[in-house]
Amino acid sequence: RQLQQLIKQAEQDSRVLKMLIDDLVVDMKGVLLLPFATILNIFPRMIRDIAGEAGKEAVLEITGSEIEIDKRILEEIKDPLIHLLRNAVDHGIEDPEQRRTNGKPKRGTIELVISAVRGNRVEILLRDDGRGISPDHVKQKALRLGLVSEDRAQHLAEDEALRLVFLSGVSTSPIVTEISGRGLGLAIVSDTVKRLGGRLSLTSE
């Protein structure tokens, strides 16, 4: 009988302890995790303003802003996201007249899609319907800066050539502007993502 009472008391103590731990986990998440919306809410207006300054029209569509992430990572990733968005407007989205000539809507679209992948990892996908990136232009810029040899440039595959944009000073546009970070934006993005233990990939059409 005493043993049964001890077992019953231990089970009750275990349930109470589990409730306390669950509450603690919830509290810790509240301290450590924040939704992406915390930093993303300002971006749609920022895109409209930047596009307006450049004589363009652009809209930002966001998906997955409710996904939560460690707030330290969120703080670190904010500036790289701003660089990428500025770059999309400045170098990607064409002016309305050029878009009409190419059979596109005069207003460009930029998409920012956040999704949870493989447990505790997050994927951030940023794409625009602009002009894309010319691998040849990127190689020529890297050659002029002495970042690659002529022989290596000739043998670079298209994806390897595109990755040159992540080197400091290499710009996807012949005109480097304040909007896109004077050619430094994508290098900053690459450095930050690597420091956070992430991976970066780039495709262009």
Q: So how many helices?
A: 9
Order of helices and strands: HEHHEEHHEEHHHH
Structural class: alpha+beta
Shape summary: elongated
Task: Summarize the helices and strands and which ones pair or pack.
Blueprint: H1 2-32, E1 33-35, H2 37-40, H3 43-53, E2 58-63, E3 68-70, H4 71-92, H5 96-101, E4 108-117, E5 121-128, H6 135-144, H7 150-155, H8 158-162, H9 185-195
Parallel strand pairs: 2-4
Antiparallel strand pairs: 1-3, 4-5
Helix pairs in contact: 3-4, 4-9
Overview of this structure, please?
- With 205 residues, the protein is an alpha+beta fold.
- The strands form 2 sheets. Strands 2-4-5 form a 3-stranded mixed β-sheet, with helices on one face. A two-stranded antiparallel sheet has the order 1-3.
- The chain contains 9 helices and 5 strands, in the order αβααββααββαααα.
- α4 packs antiparallel against α9.
- A hairpin with a 3-residue loop joins β4 and β5.
- The radius of gyration is 24 Å and the shape is elongated.
The gist of it:
With 205 residues, the chain is of the alpha+beta class. Helices cover 52% and strands 15% of the residues.
Key phrases:
single chain; alpha+beta; 52% helix; three-stranded mixed beta sheet; 205 residues; 9 helices; elongated; 5 strands; 15% strand; two-stranded antiparallel sheet
